[in-house]
Amino acid sequence: MVVRVPRSESVSPEPLFVVGAVSQYLGAAVAVHLFDEIAPAGVALVRVLGAAVMIILLRRSWQRRWKASDLAWASAFGVALAAMNLSIYLSIDELPLGNAVAIEFTGPILVAAAFTRTLRSGAALLLAAGGVVVLAGVEAEGTMRGVGFALLAGMFWAGYIVLGHRVARGPAAVDGLGLGMLAGAAAISGFGAPELGPALDSPLVLLLALVTGLLSNVIPYWIDQLVMRRITQHRFALLQALLPATAVLVGIAVLIQVPSTRELFGIALVIAAILLSRSVKGPGGTAAGTGIRATD
Known about the structure:
Elements: H1 13-34, H2 40-59, H3 68-92, H4 97-104, H5 106-114, H6 119-136, H7 144-168, H8 174-192, H9 197-201, H10 203-228, H11 233-239, H12 242-255, H13 261-278
Helix pairs in contact: 1-10, 1-12, 2-3, 2-8, 2-10, 3-7, 3-8, 4-6, 4-7, 5-7, 5-11, 6-13, 7-10, 12-13
């Protein structure tokens, strides 16, 4: 009898994405504690640079023959990723976390809207957007500086989705993720390098910052690359709505935070959006509005 081990291609994108989301929120919990030791820009730099080195070493990316076009796309992708990480950390330093994340979600929601071509996909988008708003609990609080950084993070998040699909479906794939983050670390080094003193003085602080990179970048973004190869930009943008829902579930399991009726309603809206978006297809079997044939 032969036992077959399931490949990532045989697993639905939703559970893969949830694993990445849980890892990302565990990394965020570590990062919040580090803000007392290192400024947010410093944590963002160590997170991106450490993750880049881990992936490059694991993949032995230097052995790949790189085309100039692959290098260019990977670098653009990595800069968007690093700028997204930096911007949201700076926003969270000024705004309540729920507000910052809700504002940041304008990025993936706009990407989904750009590829909406049917009533069904439009309904899925509205459900996802409603679920995100309900879960985030948007309030008119915080400084304009924090709001500006959150909007900037949303813009870079949109770029991450669009450029990430280009890299994931190209020959570089995960190698492009590692090299891209290295380019991204270089791009934000001017902001983060001056803040690295505490990390260099304390091996424990540096280790925790690297753990943040592993949990928040290596694991979830690697999973993103696997998922992006199989689904369209529109559906991936809708899947981003699972992030706040997963955060509530992590709160129940880890922090014993029981969700309110409002939060449960938000989770229901997001799940409904995901189920509705699964069946959205355009002419000729392509996912609605993207022009890219879905493989799942």
